[in-house]
Amino acid sequence: MSKQLVIKVTAGADAPERCSQAFTVAAVAVASGVRVSLWLTGESSWFALPGRAAEFELPHAAPLPDLLDSLLTGGSVTLCTQCAARREITQDDVLDGVRIAGAQVFVQEVMGQDVQALVY
Length: 120
What we know:
Number of domains: 1
CATH topology: Hypothetical Protein Ychn, Chain: A
Helix content: 25-40%
Mean pLDDT: 95
Number of helices: 4
Largest sheet: 5 strands, parallel
Distance between the termini: 26 Å
């Protein structure tokens, strides 16, 4: 069984460096062949919506839409159920490939064998 990296992103435009770090680490891991599960929570929840990643800017950072595309292609992206509800985001609103799931699924992922978890 290959190792999995689970990353929970809590930051968005409110903390751009922390947000960018999470997406960058996740995308590099995917490119390296690691199984990656990226969880969007808090302010990063908005990036589950079409066009929102394109609004994010951080000098000298990889474009967030490119990082997100690589994660949707080679990993998994999950939007927190409660975070989605607080923002009135439904499954019909999110990008193709983004699922909405809650704490039970997160716990299952981080408690799996050969799993490393990071929170940004």
